[in-house]
Write a structure and sequence with these properties.
The complex is a heterodimer of chains A (415) and B (306). Chain A is α/β, with parallel strands linked by helices and 415 residues long. Chain A folds into two domains: 167 residues, Periplasmic binding protein-like II (D-Maltodextrin-Binding Protein, domain 2, 3-Layer(aba) Sandwich), CATH 3.40.190; 215 residues, D-Maltodextrin-Binding Protein, domain 2 (3-Layer(aba) Sandwich). Helix content of chain A is 47%, strand content 14%. In chain A, strands 1, 2, 3, 4, 5, 6, 7, 8 and 9 form a nine-stranded mixed beta sheet that branches. Chain B has 306 residues and is an all-alpha fold. Chain B has a domain of 174 residues: MetI-like (MetI-like fold, Orthogonal Bundle), CATH 1.10.3720.10. Chain B has a two-stranded antiparallel ribbon. In chain B, strand 1 and strand 2 form a beta hairpin. In chain B, helix 4 runs antiparallel to helix 11 and helix 5 packs across helix 8. Classes of the chains: A alpha/beta (415), B mainly alpha (306).
Chain lengths: 415, 306
């Protein structure tokens, strides 16, 4: 009997921690551990910790539990945490996360002395992503991003073309003519353009051709229209002409790697590529130019945000940290060290290099139609992003027409 | 000899008040039962319930009856992913079984120099994360940046569309799966082979049986239970293939290598249609169940599973 009691005691001792309560231990003092969920494009988590170091020094009772998750798993992890009632205290968010998670994000306005003054500190296009239907701020915009065209400057110079000059007014037809000369003039260069395998980057082309995902009043999907069909057909034409490598949209090769290897003359990427290319490109010079004009000139606005959650356990402390991190001085430091565009209207950042490249992205953003930001603030666009990519790939493979692709996307949006 | 009757086989033990034979085993099993209940049984029933709901992750579930299941069979992409999964599973399981059995036959007799080294070499890929395997093979087989095409081009060739041609991409995914997992099943076959008494082989040799005949008449029949386990495990694993495919081809080109699990993930976590994705999962479970039962029926006749 004694032995049985010992066995029972051991089993109890072994499993008692499981039932001892899932939350963190809280001492009698005001010690707070803030769980921060983060993903990296480059070195953002490192810079984030560096940027908030003075906050931690000033608030020794606050500790940060930084959890860096691969971007591919990030959304699922975040959703599971929220639906499980155990969200992080603070999370880094993209433009697509904010609308999807809007119902779970804690509005920031009640924590601010003067909400309108705080909102006015941010670029209107970035703020638009962060507002709920009542106009309350759900997250602080941290970085602004823009899609654009990055070019292999050395290759264009080898072809005797002043790409900075011609890009001021070029159209897609003129780009096509010029890029063929660039390919011909550079041994080892095989393609004219690599476009990231995402609907967000394809949207650059879509908007340039006058297209859009939604209807004019942004109330419903409206995919079946001539402009969208033209954009998809033009993308197919670029593939069929061999100007765009098939291995990106049909295979799974990374367009940034193709650009870095000197295989493509241009890359439709985004402002976040500046940091990567600064580090990785050593064999040639590169720069950013305006994307050729279709019906209009357009970029695709985007950005990153930080937000807290309604079910968060340390909302006050989370709001305090986010406000600190988002003020002018800290935001400037963070954007400078991560080589990102600031989302603050009052930011004055002197980048040590690539000021010209940042200026082009800023310019492209400034001429981008406002509706594009609203579209990307719609959860449906994000939810259907993979399906839309798949439909475009079916067109590239010749399995359906561009019109059929648009109809399929429209039908899915209504399902 | 007296034949044992059914009732003679029963073992009568005094159970009342015997802690060691009643409560103690249950207590030791309790953690496992609890984990099984929490992570398998409850989610299974939860999934089954959700399959009849219209449910987004942050919305209130709404009962829709069989609508999700009805829509599944009108969903072209889902039907394509089922077809792809079955094609992939068939070839992957057959190749895995044959290759791992061949490897085990070569490396189980202690007759070759460096046998243990070879076993380790063939086993190592199965220890790797499928994500790492997928990324590594993407670098090897990539059209433009891949090592294989680089070598082919440097020898004057034009490169092969390993991952941008649908059929080739499927073939590559199957072969890489076999490469990555055959070491694991090889070990199972080796343990099965080593359990076969040597006397049987000696007797066969004395009787003048050829190696081919010995394999078919002695080795394979006595390995049947191991073959069955390998078939069942490999089938279940192949139906659940996800990481390797997503990292290697992202399911492409187009839908050429897109399998059910990837579609379930996309519908659930990107399109936020949890109920519909649950219905897909239930269909996947039923398909795996049917295949497993068929394998048990054909490979495990007479109940000889062990």
């Amino acid at each position: 009997m004694k032995r049985s009691l010992v066995v029972l005691f051991c089993i109890f001792a072994l499993f008692s921690p499981l039932f001892a309560g899932g939350g963190k231990e809280s001492s009698a003092s005001d010690d707070v551990t803030l769980t921060v969920l983060w993903f990296n494009d480059a070195n953002e988590s490192e810079v984030f910790m560096d940027t908030i170091q003075d906050y931690l020094d000033a608030n020794p009772n606050v500790k940060i539990d930084l959890q860096v998750i691969a971007f591919g798993d990030y959304e699922q992890k975040l959703k599971m945490m929220i639906s499980g009632g155990n969200p992080p205290d603070v999370a880094r968010l993209t433009t697509s996360h904010v609308p999807i998670l809007a119902a779970s994000l804690e509005p920031i306005d009640p924590y601010l002395e003067n909400p309108e003054a705080t909102k006015a500190e941010f670029m209107p296009s970035m703020l638009a992503f962060a507002l709920d239907k009542e106009g309350q701020m759900l997250a602080y915009p941290t970085e602004a991003t823009a899609n654009g065209m990055i070019v292999n400057l050395t290759a264009w110079e080898n072809a005797g073309i002043d790409v900075r000059e011609i890009s001021k007014t070029w159209t897609w037809d003129e780009w096509e003519e010029a890029v063929k000369k660039v390919i011909a003039a550079n041994e080892g260069m095989k393609y004219g353009l690599a476009v990231d395998y995402t609907i967000h980057r394809f949207a650059t082309l879509l908007y340039e051709f006058g297209g859009s995902f939604m209807n004019e009043d942004q109330t419903a999907f409206d995919m079946v229209k001539e402009e969208n069909i033209n954009a998809i057909n033009y993308f197919k034409h670029l593939h069929d002409e061999g100007l765009v490598p098939q291995s990106v949209w049909l295979g799974s090769e990374n367009p940034a790697e193709l650009f870095q290897a000197g295989l493509v003359a241009c890359h439709i990427g985004g402002s976040w590529n500046i940091n990567t290319y600064n580090t990785n490109v050593k064999d040639f010079e590169w720069t950013v130019v305006s994307t050729p004009k279709g019906e209009i000139n357009s970029s695709v606005p985007g950005g990153k945000f930080i937000g807290a959650f309604k079910d968060g356990k340390n909302k006050e402390a989370a709001m305090d940290l986010m406000a600190w991190f988002s003020d002018k001085a800290h935001n400037e430091k963070y954007c400078l060290d991560t080589f990102n565009l600031s989302s603050r209207a009052d930011a004055e950042i002197e980048y040590p290099t690539n000021s010209a490249e940042f200026a082009v992205f800023q310019h492209d953003l400034s001429i981008t139609p406002a509706f594009t930001a609203v579209e990307w603030g719609n959860a449906k666009v994000t939810q259907l992003s993979t399906f839309m990519v798949e439909q475009i790939v079916q067109v590239l493979l010749g399995n359906q027409t561009a019109e059929e692709a648009c109809q399929a996307i429209q039908a899915r949006s209504e399902a | 000899m007296k034949k044992l009757k059914k009732k003679d086989e029963r073992i009568h033990v005094r159970t009342k008040g015997n802690f060691h034979q009643t409560l103690a085993p249950m207590l030791f099993l309790a953690p496992n039962i609890l984990i099984f209940l929490l992570f398998i049984i409850i989610p299974l029933f939860q999934g089954l319930r959700m399959a009849f709901m219209d449910w987004g992750i942050f919305t209130v579930p709404e009962f829709v009856g069989l609508k999700n299941f009805a829509n599944l069979f009108k969903d072209e992409v889902f039907l394509i992913t089922i077809k792809n999964t079955i094609v992939y599973s068939f070839f992957a399981v057959v190749l895995l079984t044959v290759v791992s059995l061949c490897l085990a036959l070569m490396l189980s007799r202690n007759s070759m120099k460096g046998e243990r080294v070879f076993r380790a070499v063939f086993y190592i890929p199965s220890l790797l994360s499928m994500i790492a395997v997928g990324i590594a093979w993407r670098f090897i087989l990539g059209d433009e940046m891949g090592i294989v095409n680089y070598v082919l081009r440097s020898m004057g060739g034009s490169g092969v569309k390993w991952l941008t041609d649908g059929n080739l991409a499927m073939m590559c995914v199957i072969l890489v799966s076999v490469w990555a997992s055959s070491g694991y099943y090889m070990i199972m076959f080796i343990s099965g082979l080593q359990a076969i008494p040597n006397e049987l082989y000696e007797a066969a040799t004395i009787d003048g049986s050829s190696p081919w005949n010995t394999f078919w008449r002695i080795t394979l029949p006595l390995l049947r239970s191991t073959v069955l386990v390998v078939l069942v495990l490999a089938t279940i694993a192949s139906f659940k293939a996800y990481e390797l495919i997503v990292t290697m081809t992202k399911g492409g080109p187009g839908y050429a290598t897109k399998f059910i699990v990837q579609q379930v993930y996309q519908v659930a976590f990107q399109e936020d249609r949890m109920g519909y994705a649950s219905a897909m999962s239930i269909v996947l479970m039923v398909i795996i169940g049917i295949f497993t039962l068929v394998q048990f029926k054909f490979a495990g006749k007479d109940g000889q599973y062990d």
